Amino acid sequence: MAPKTSAPQPRAIRLYLLTYNTTAALFWLHILLTTLSTLLSSSSSPNISSVYTSLEPWTRCAQTLAVAEILHAATGIIHSPIFTTFTQVFARSVQVWAINYAFPAVTASSRPYPAMLLAWATADVVRYCYFAVMLAGWSIPGVLKWLRYSLFIVLYPVGIGGEWWLMYKATTVTSNWAVAGIFYFFLCLYVPGE
C-alpha cells in the first residue's frame, strides 16, 4: 500500500513500505507466472490440479502477508480507510484459509481456481508495482497507471466469480451445517458488499 501523500514520511517508513510492496509484488508475480506456465505447458488440456498443488501454499502466504496492510492503515502509515482495507483483506483471507486450504478436493479440480489466481495475481502485481515505483520516488509510467486503474473492469468480475463459485462448492461438500451456514451468509454478502 502507498504512504500518505499529505506529509513526508520518515525514511525508515518509506523503506519499509518499499520493501513490503516489492516483496508482495514478487510473491504475486511468482503466482502469476507459475499459473500461466502450468496452464500453458499442458499439451491437451490444462492440469488444474497442478496449479493448486504448486500454488496453494504460495497464495496463502502472499495473502496472509496482506494482513500487514490492516496494521498499516490502522497506524496511519498508509492512506487507506481501515474498514475497507480490513474487509478486502479479510474476504481474501477467508478464501485462502477457509475455502482453498480447507477444501482441497473442491478447489484443486475447479477451473475457477486458476482463473481467480490469474485475476488476483495480475491485479496485485500491478498494484504493488505501482506503489513500489511511487515509493522509490520514480515517475510512474503511463502504462502502469493505466493498468492500475483499468484492469479491474475485467479482473474484478473474474476474481469475485471464482471466489463465489469456490465458496459455493465448499458448501456442497461440507457435512458441518454451521460451516455451510456461515459460507451461505458470506455468499449473500457478495451481492451488496462487492
Topology overview:
Blueprint: H1 11-41, H2 48-65, H3 67-75, H4 82-101, H5 104-108, H6 112-135, H7 142-150, H8 152-173, H9 177-193
What coarse outline follows from CA principal-axis ratios? globular
The total of beta strands comes to: 0
Count the DSSP helices. 9
Overall residue-averaged pLDDT value? 93
Estimate the strand proportion: under 5%
The sequence of SSEs as H and E is: HHHHHHHHH
Broad structural category: mainly alpha
Number of domains: 1
State Rg.
Answer: 17 Å
Distance from first to last alpha carbon:
20 Å
Helix content percent band: over 70%
Q: Biggest β-sheet: count, sense, barrel?
A: none
Q: Which residue ranges are poorly predicted, with pLDDT under 50 across at least 5 consecutive positions?
A: none
Labels describing this entry:
mainly alpha; globular
Concise account of the structure shown:
Pathway: Lipid metabolism; fatty acid biosynthesis. Helix content is 80%, strand content 0%.
